[in-house]
Design brief:
Blueprint: H1 2-26, H2 41-51
């Protein structure tokens, strides 16, 4: 049972690290990743970040998806 908790902790740290990297590349503050801890708000904020204008994207330049 201890292995389960260790794996959950590792998975949680990985998810927060990954979310912080994505937010940083998009131009948002990394601390927004803490919204993942709040039920219902986390789902709402994923939609907000997905459909908002990202500060790091330049106007008139297409985003390269590679």
């Amino acid at each position: 049972m201890t292995l389960f908790y260790v794996l959950v902790l590792i998975y949680g740290v990985f998810i927060f690290w990954l979310g912080a990297k994505i937010l940083d590349k998009a131009g948002f503050d990394k601390w927004w990743v803490l919204c993942l801890l709040i039920p219902v708000v986390n789902i709402f904020m994923i939609w907000v970040f997905a459909f908002s204008n990202w500060p790091n994207l330049k106007k008139g330049v297409e985003q390269n998806m590679n």
